[in-house]
Each structure stands twice: as C-alpha cells, then as structure tokens.
Write a structure and sequence with these properties.
about 160 residues; single chain; 5 helices
Length: about 160
C-alpha cells in the first residue's frame, strides 16, 4: 500500500489591486457663456446663489466653482466685519470704563486697521478672481478656493 501524502495547496496572497485613483477634475472653461456667468457670480451674491441652485448648472464645474467661491467670500467678509466691530466696540467700551483709555483706543484702532487691511486684500483677490473667471481660467483664493472646489465637485457625475 502506498501512502501518498498530498501537500495542501497554498495560494500566495496577492496584494489587492489598488483602487483606481481618479485624476483631479480640471476646472477650466472654453465656453464663453460660462465665463460670462462666472464673471457675474462675483458681482452679486444673489446671482451666485441662483447659479448654485439651478439644476442645469449641476454639471458645469467651472461655473459652480466660481459661484461657491463668491458665496464663501461674502460669508468671510461678513464674519470679519462682525468680529472687527465686536472687538473694536468692546475695546472702545473698555476705554470709557477703565483707566488708561488711550491704550484701549490705540488697540481698538489697530483691530479696525487690521480688519480693513484684510478686507482690502480679499477685495483685490476678488477682482483678480473676477478677471480670471472671465478669461476661462480659475483663480483659487487660498483657503476659500479649496472649500469651493470641494463643494463644486461634490455632486458632479
């Protein structure tokens, strides 16, 4: 009687194929109508909101990017204005209540000046974004542009 021992067959563990990485979406436009509409999203928050809400614009990533960037920019401007007004007003109130009023007044002026400089820089970036939107190439404002890009490409199929 022969005894044959069979070795258990083992399959080498092959690494799972890496998921296909999708290339980042290119946000550009050759369509003059999209460029013109993107230009106007920076002019009016109402137009930007309409662009985001209209169903036929759901697939136009370029137009949605500019609309979201304009909306986020308006929200940042409002937030900065509220924060600066509260801080500057609080510091001016401290000037009236406490001794050393000149120091509080200078600090309040510094807060107001810093807020104004920030809003001026944001306004210049908005004008640059508006001009670039009209030319068909996007301009990403440092933090706001990344948020706008995520929002614009979120539901695009």
């Amino acid at each position: 009687m022969s005894t044959e021992q069979t070795e258990p067959t083992t399959f080498a563990q092959q690494p799972a194929p890496a998921p296909a990485q999708s290339a980042p979406m290119q946000i550009t436009s050759d369509d003059s109508c999209s460029c013109f509409q993107s230009f106007f999203t920076y002019m009016s928050i109402l137009f930007a909101l309409m662009v985001v809400c209209v169903k036929r614009n759901k697939t136009n990533v370029y137009l949605r990017f500019n609309a979201f960037q304009a909306i986020y920019m308006v929200l940042v401007v409002l937030a900065v204005n509220v924060i600066v007004c509260i801080l500057a007003g609080g510091l001016m109130l401290m000037m009236m209540v406490m001794e050393g009023g000149f120091m509080w007044m200078v600090l309040s002026g510094f807060v107001y000046f810093a807020g104004t400089i920030f809003l001026l820089v944001l306004s210049v970036m908005s004008i640059i974004a508006m001009i670039k939107a009209y030319s068909g190439s996007p301009f990403k404002i440092p933090v706001i542009g990344n948020m706008a890009e995520k929002s614009a490409t979120k539901y695009v199929r």
